[in-house]
Design a protein that fits this description.
Length: 219
């Protein structure tokens, strides 16, 4: 299997060197570039077109959130794993909406970052427990407000997210979807979080209403 080409983005040399020391001795990954801020990350991604970007959030100039948006807009197939100290609600929500593929905290074991890289290389997703927890709390809070379901975000769903969305809306369970799509239940759950964030919906019932309105499933 071809090595996945990795771009590292962090403004701390010690972090870059730590990741490099691990990946340099690991099969399946090749570091093709490094950047110390968001602007460099966007430029390097456009030039190198990496398979995976490992992205910090807090950096001088353009931060990792905006850099993620720009890279995903230009290179939607590039997988982005956030590697950060922060689990703030605002960061997590914005990054989910931008379409990240992984979220790992720097205080977690470095092995978690390796698990994330293996997962996204295989086409899946990986999130430390803190990111889904923050999103779940947000969705529960948003559900109490009874806000309207937005439909114009359907186009923002990836092909796999669209498949998961339609199956969830049709009443299929996470395990049934995992079996049908040959992916793990954890990956289905991750896609569900992505879909809820992108569509700004709170429940699977909201998804079903949206799918019926868009005539993706029958009432």
């Amino acid at each position: 299997m071809t090595d996945s080409r990795v771009l590292l983005v962090d403004d701390h040399d010690v972090v870059i060197e730590g990741i490099k020391s691990v990946l340099d001795g690991l099969e399946g990954f090749a570091i093709v570039g490094m950047a110390i801020d968001g602007r460099q990350a966007v430029a390097q991604a456009a030039l190198l077109q990496p398979d995976i970007v490992v992205m910090d959030i807090s950096m001088p100039g353009m931060n990792g959130v905006e850099a993620t948006r720009q890279i995903k807009a230009r290179l939607p197939d590039t997988r982005i794993v956030i590697y950060t100290m922060f689990s703030d609600k605002e960061y997590v929500l914005e990054l989910f909406r931008a379409g990240i593929d992984g979220y790992v905290l720097k205080q977690d074991p470095l092995s978690d970052l390796l698990l994330a890289l293996d997962a996204v290389k295989a086409g899946g997703t990986y999130f430390s427990t803190e990111a889904p927890k923050v999103l779940s709390e947000h969705l529960r809070g948003a559900g109490a407000s009874g806000g309207p379901v937005k439909t114009n975000a359907l186009d923002a769903l990836s092909r796999r997210e669209r498949q998961v969305f339609e199956l969830l809306a049709d009443g299929r369970s996470v395990r049934e979807i995992a079996k049908a799509l040959f992916i793990s239940p954890k990956t289905v759950e991750s896609h569900k979080y992505h879909i809820m964030a992108k569509l700004d919906v709170d429940t699977v019932t909201d998804m079903t209403k949206l799918a019926i309105r868009e005539k993706l499933i029958e009432a």
